[in-house]
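Researcher: Go.
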Amino acid sequence: MGTYRAPLEDMGFVIDELLDAGGTLGSLPVYEEFGVGPELTTALLDEAGKLAADVMAPLRRAGDEHPATCTEGKVTISPGYGDALQQFSAGGWIGIAADANYGGQGLPELYSTACHEMWNSANIALALAPLLSSSAALAIAAHGSDEQKQTYLEKMHSGEWLGTMNLTESGAGSDLGVMKSKAVPEGDHYRISGQKIYITWGDHDATDNIVHLVLAKLPDAPAGSRGISLFIVPKYLVNADGSPGERNDVYPVSCEHKLGIHGSPTCVMAFGDDEGAIGYLLGQENQGLACMFTMMNEARLKVGIQALGAAEGSFQKALGYARERVQGSVPIIEHPDVKRMLLSMKALTEAMRALAYTEAVTMDMAHLGPQESRAPQQARIDLMIPVIKGWLSEVGQELTSIGLQVHGGMGYIEETGAAQYLRDVRITSIYEGTNGIQAADLVTRKIGRDGGAAMEAVLDDLRATVTALDAADDSRTAIIATALGRALAEMESSTQHILQAMSEDASIALGASFDYMMQTGYLFGGWQLARSALVALSRLREGSDNPFYEQKVATAVFYAEQILPRCAGHAGAVSSAAGSLHSYPVDWL
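Model: Structure:
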């Protein structure tokens, strides 16, 4: 059944042919020196793929079977994880898209997104360490003082130190306004006290220091979420020469016992049980949530990528098993239902990849593109992020479950490793804002805020793709055009239902929000596969005999026939949200 191998051909196709990274990003002044294009893509993905396959993937089962543990205020991580992180850091991978002035490589987010896909396919639990650290570094880069940037960023980008995000408290959950952690001013710093839960990679000895970003309230802070500040709380205080010094008053209490991602030390963290942990204000007082949201789009994109990675890993394992497992005198891949499951996995995984990579480019353009285009690009990425986080994580759960099903009874046996993908990916619909929060954000803040203008701009681009499919004069693109056009019309109707509901009773829109999010995801995934089919068809008409291009067209047709009809079901639920769901008394449940 083999091990994980990065799907480099499809990744390269999306980056260099579908998205034309060289023309789109390579022309930006900030990236001119890198030579963005096929040569860079191949070299970068090859090396990142080797790290994923040769270093990270072999530790996936080890981390699952030997979870991180906490004893007497010290975490012991899974076997091999420390060495793997050292190799990760030695390659400069953590700061791949970070500012080169602070030790990063300065590459586009598109390449970071592709690398994170591979690392999460190989080992989600291990890949969480660089993911959270890069997010913490991004917050410091955006809001830190020059001194804070000089003190922390280069070491975080190099992987010499790792970072964490400390938001959640017991009893608070997503309602951060009721948190109890306190920050008391003391000279040029603050004394932090309180306890946080669910802190990913909260403690370990894999690096010389850990830079915790901690939300807490000042004594005179306004009530609720308006009174939250953000603090840098290093595990070891930093000496004047930049080296780790005295141990700070921050310790792990325990490691959570989780359904999956066992190799990731998810900690309960205690701040200030003794004299109070020393922390340094990041940004302005009472602006902690605003600081955190600076990195939220990037973090939520990466959670979607986690789900994509798990789906790809599960698909590869299921495909390998189906080719080897003989039943009825033939490998089970020949069985129509098994073929259906595998092709569903392939089509949806490729749709997820194309959508996520496309919007990684949108993120790059919103930050670094021509000044006049940044606002509409930011509006688009703001619209897309809840879809990418929500839809990809929901589909990732479906696909990893299908991967287990392909194995039959052996999938339910832990020794095959098929079930681990499902257990590991299950968290992605929960953290970084549950998918209910993503769906609510989509309809209230993104659709309701601008009256659907950002959505309409995206749908205009989708309409142009339908027109191009019709003009391609090919029976296969005609099938895609018909299905995509039908799903587009359903989306237009659903958006009007949402806008009408928002104007009358927001609770109706919220009741429809999850189905609207899923409908949007299936539509946009099909759109990106349709665009891929057009590119592939043009290559075939240019004379290419690469079977990969025939596969891309055929996969897009399958998606149009077998997956896009799901949009109609979600559209029906959106249109009826004012009915029984809205009126059903909660005390009948």
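Model: The CA atoms of residues 232 and 518 lie 37 Å apart.
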